[in-house]
Amino acid sequence: MGLFGFGKKECEPLEAVLFNLEMNMSHNYKDATIADLAKLETMFEALRKNGELSEKQMVHYAEVIDEWKEKTKGFAYKNQAPTRK
Q: Where are the domains of the chain?
């Protein structure tokens, strides 16, 4: 990060959602992970449309979203372990 925040790479609202997404993924909360990914995409699009992201931030977060889409590919209720009776 540059002096006085110039050239800042991170966007705090998106980083907060990413933190939650990573925590839910680490605890194997698939539904919450999928919900956080949808929230991340929605927030990214809103910030992008409002011009609140720099070009570098747009590229960075677009790549992050693509990576998370690949990681969560195939997440569904049927993939969860069955409960014991």
A: 10-73
pLDDT tens digits for range 2-51: 445 555 568 899 999 999 999 999 998 989 999 999 999 999 999 999 99
Q: Kindly report the pTM of this predicted structure.
A: 0.78
If you ran DSSP here, which 8-state letter would residue 50 be given? T
Length of the chain: 85
Q: Who contacts 4 (Cβ-Cβ below 8 Å, separation ≥6)?
A: none
Exposure letters 4-18 (e unless 16+ CB within 10 A, then b): eeeeeeebeebeebb
Three-state secondary-structure class, residue 52: coil
Q: Which residues contact 59 (CB under 8 A, 6 or more apart)?
A: none
* Nearest residue to 39 via CA among 60, 54, 24, 56: 24
